Amino acid sequence: LGLALYTGSLRVVSGAAFLYHDYCIIGAGPSGLQAAYFLQQAGRDYVVFERSHAPGSFFALYPRHRKLISINKRYTGKSNSEFNLRHDWNSLLSHDRRLLFRRYSRDFFPDADAMVRYLEDFAALLKLRVQYNTAIVHVTLERNAQAWNGHYFLLTDQDRQNYKCSSLLVATGTWVPNVVNFPGSEYVEGYETVSISPEDFAGQTVLILGRGNSAFETAENILGVTNFIHMVSRSRVRLSWATHYVGDLRAINNGLLDTYQLKSLDGLLEGDLEDLAILKDKKGKLHITLRFYLENRNTSAGIDSITLPQDELDNFATRAPYDRVIRCLGWKFDFSIYNRSLRMMPGKGNKKKYPQIKPSYESRGTRGLFVLGTASHSVDFRKSAGGFIHGFRYTTRAVHRLLENRHHGVPWPSTVYPITQLTNSIIKRVNEASGLYQMFSVLADIILLRENATAFEYLEEYPVGVLAELETQTGRKAPNGLFLVIMEYGRNFSGADKDVFYYNRAVGEAQHAWQSNFLHPVIYYYKRLPTEREMRLRPPDWPLPRPDAVHHIVEDFLTDWTAPNAHILPLRRFLENCLSTDLRNFFAESCFLFAFTRQKLPPFCQHGYVRMQGLVGSEGLRHHAVDAGLLEDYTPIDFSGDSPPDSHEGSQDQLLRDHTIPVRPLQHLVNTKDE
């Protein structure tokens, strides 16, 4: 049987043997394993290629000083697993409760070795099909009209074994170090190889090139043993608490900011690294100069014959020589293995380290090639968490759902509810959904309205960048309008130059909800699905085009949007205005009176009371409703006649004789308070 299965998957192309799979995943890092999990759960034919002997090889080396900056909050005071994932930035999604990262580390900022163990167990316990020690060295296309996407992907490994796939998922991350070439750059040590022993830097003067977390992590490690540390980069320092972007400088690494601002010799400088030059003197000291000073000069003649900046400006900032210069400039995507036929092009500007992809995470150059994980961060770079585990675990699931619909006819998962559950459904999701919370402004819940707004279909965590393609991408129809539930920060609250601690930085009144600064839910309403043109022309920094109506749920200090007056009531009234209906809940007595006083019953009465369902009053419930002001305190009916209390005829006679119900209480019931 094994031989038959093997030969069934063995094909020949151009005289070379190759193995076929529907899905090929390159890379067994977190995003590759996450994609493999979803494919395995769906029963799909896939394989994961990993160049190392174990998964998560990036974390075996990085970060160099072994402390992750992804938080591991083990206690939240709640038992809701979905809510707890909002504060667990390391776990991947699975059905196995053993594979929660809090079982692997007790540290708030865990050691990277714990991540290595976690990924090994994730692959082993779930029996994911990972082919280790397989480095894919070349990827090209084979045109074929019968293939899913009009072509197959042909992969070759280091042993010249060939593989053929219908869909290719690239999960290699960004691992090629960024290098800036300038005169003297050969004297620079790389973050990937520099010593991590503080003793090796004792009494030395160090210059660090870079301004990100790897640069500050390196500085933090040697801060107490060096003479001083200078740090230079082309941009100013960006603090994550000001930008609300987790990839910017985190507080755990920013000790050098203290020593700089409190004048303890260390310092930060801004400048274009390509304009620099480094000269080495006879004592091995490194001198910083500018490239233009070396133009038309013979550098081999020695440093004494070259004019340095301090020769003309005697207080030049970097006039003191350095013992070591360390490069900490991050990483970029490896484009080298992809044939030109795939048209894998780098992005533009500050996104050039990532491949160009669509908001659906599909390559702009090749259909059927999807980029997952850190390498897909161009979709939300410097905006959301798509470059980190706690973000791309959800975008990877979104890609899987898109593939299930495209190739297997499985529509995007959805649930249909009666319209009376609309408010509850939204409140539930904004209070517990982790995907919305982490991938704010990128993933949204979609609420598709049924005809006459009698029911709705709820889709979770759909990429808003492809909203115009919703019907083709999900297999769901949106002919009657839709709501989108998304999380956002305030428009002008985030930025490197923003003071996020200013007085009155938060609002608390529902009428000022649109001015909320901190992360809060926003509900967009569209009478029809936005078009591609409307998506392209949306206002700058808006995740969506202008809606027919929009509602902000006021920010909350506890991120608990369950306050009846501040959160739920304004939301319900917004939904009612959009739908021209009454979404309140009523007791059976109120529905009974509405049947006599209104031409159309509220949806709650239609779905409950009219169908012999709903909340029928008991004595205890009646007293509770009276105490709450929801019902009038009527005089109990006295069954003192011959008919028993449950006699229909006796009850009818008593009601006919009872003249104590005036018009005013009837009106009070019709306008009953919110349930």
TrEMBL record:
InterPro entries: Auxin_biosynth/cation_transpt (IPR050982), FAD/NAD-bd_sf (IPR036188)
Ranges where the record places region Disordered: 637-660
Keyword Signal included in the entry's annotation: yes
GO cellular component: endoplasmic reticulum lumen
Biased composition range(s): Basic and acidic residues: 645-660
MF annotations from Gene Ontology: flavin adenine dinucleotide binding; monooxygenase activity
Record's keyword terms, sorted: Endoplasmic reticulum, FAD, Flavoprotein, Glycoprotein, Oxidoreductase, Signal
UniProt GO BP: ERAD pathway
Cofactor: FAD
Transmembrane annotation, as ranges: none
Record family assignment: Belongs to the FOXRED2 family.
Protein task: Probable flavoprotein which may function in endoplasmic reticulum associated degradation (ERAD). May bind non-native proteins in the endoplasmic reticulum and target them to the ubiquitination machinery for subsequent degradation.
Subunit structure: Interacts with SEL1L. May interact with OS9 and DNAJC10. Interacts with TXNDC16.
Protein name, entry field: FAD-dependent oxidoreductase domain-containing protein 2
Source organism: Circaetus pectoralis (black-chested snake-eagle)
